[in-house]
Amino acid sequence: MREVELLLFTHAHDDHLAEKELQYLSWMFLPSGDTSNLRIAGSETVLNKIRQSIDTEQVPLTIEPALRPWETRQIGDWSITPVIPNHDPSQICFNHIIEREGKRLLYATDTGWYSESTWSFLKSTRLDAIVVEASKGPILDGYEGHLAFPQVIEFINTLRTAGCISMGAPVVTTHHCHLGGMLHDEMVEILEPSGIQVGYDGMIFD
């Protein structure tokens, strides 16, 4: 964590925001003389949850002003534009367009099927790579705030058809869960023919 410069959050669900872990950046847990300062970015919902749980006078955090949908913010070397997913109407949720050194990534989790306003915004955006959730695996029914494999394929094809991303550009899945009942190789058989890579821990792509 001492090498991390910025934590960018999508939303405040517990599987995405374990805010109490930030306490281990305090002087009580680090070698003396450590002056690292971690920047935190996210929605007002996320930032409020962190402030309620962490003594920011004891933990070296720089909490950036709350991100707002559709508005691009420069934070250090990163240009960040939040877009609205269809995930949880009870809180502010974001997916993020992240740009650095001329390369632009859409980080899309937790996603659901986008509203027309989000599709319209994205269709005017050129992307170099996409990371997209595939939480439901082959299961199409149930909670609509996540994507199943057929929806992931349609999601990517929609952006390719709109000219947002080329066929050869990296598209990688994330946020897999056991409910789909499939192993990695089985997921590859379904998604790879559509030019979609199945993500895994420690994966690096250009």
Structure characteristics:
206 residues; alpha/beta; seven-stranded mixed beta sheet; three-stranded parallel beta sheet; 4 helices; 10 strands; 18% helix
Structure, explained:
This protein has 206 residues and is α/β, with parallel strands linked by helices. It has four helices and ten strands; from the N terminus they run ββαβββββαβαβαβ. The protein has helices spanning 44-53, 116-122, 149-161, 184-191; strands spanning 6-8, 38-41, 61-63, 73-75, 78-83, 95-100, 103-108, 129-133, 171-174, 197-198. The strands form two sheets. A seven-stranded mixed beta sheet has the order 4-5-6-7-8-9-10. A three-stranded parallel beta sheet has the order 1-2-3, with no helix packed on it. Helix 1 links the parallel strand 2 and strand 3. The longest helix has 13 residues, at 149-161. The protein is globular, with a radius of gyration of 18 Å. The chain starts with 5 loop residues before the first strand and ends in an 8-residue tail after the last strand. The model has no long low-confidence stretch (mean pLDDT 92).
Question: What is this structure, in a nutshell?
Answer:
By secondary structure, this protein is of the alpha/beta class.
Proportion of helical residues: 10-25%
* Termini Cα gap: 23 Å
Q: Largest sheet, order of strands side by side?
A: 4-5-6-7-8-9-10
**Class inferred from helices and paired strands:** alpha/beta
Q: Could you give a short account of the major beta sheet?
A: 7 strands, mixed
Mean pLDDT: 92
- What is the overall shape? globular
The ordered H/E elements are: EEHEEEEEHEHEHE
The low-confidence runs, each spanning 5 or more residues with pLDDT under 50, are: none
Radius of gyration, taken over Cα atoms and rounded to an integer in Å: 18 Å
Strand content: 15-25%
Quickly count the helices.
4
Number of strands: 10
